[in-house]
Amino acid sequence: MFLTDAEQNQLKELLSRFEGDSHVQDMKKYIQHGSVTTFTHCKNVTYVSFWMNRKFKLCSDEKALVTGAFLHDFYLYDWHVPEEYHRLHGFSHAKVASGNAVKFFGIGPKEQSIIQCHMWPLNITCIPQSREAVIVCLADKVCSLIEIFVHRK
Ligand SMILES: [Fe+2]
Ligand SMILES: [Fe+2]
After folding, report:
1. Sign of dihedral through CA atoms 134, 73, 104, 46?
2. What total number of domains does the chain contain?
């Protein structure tokens, strides 16, 4: 919507490594907010992050930005179902998502840090350390608010 055709193609290219993967596709099974799946939420955050970077000329590393944004909630469970292993979902899921991203895609330390710190300031000690991490942290808040209030079930 806000990206040009050329920008949309660049974004698609950066996502091509991930989108067809079966573990990534599993995110379509889980609801993130309202009626929005985790997969769609991650795509929304990626789109907004990419747009913010271009719009405000933030000159971030777009490969790291897109990887961190798209995998930031790659925790792969339904957080609405009470289970002991994700009892503190708000605090713990960023680390789980980062671990899955390492396990399935071998992402590097920069991307791991983007994912792990996206829940700041809830995770008060995990402060976004790079401009990419700040962008994803902000885009996640914007998208979450829209999804909660606009896409209520
Ligand atoms: Fe999250
Ligand atoms: Fe998120």
Report:
1. negative
2. 1
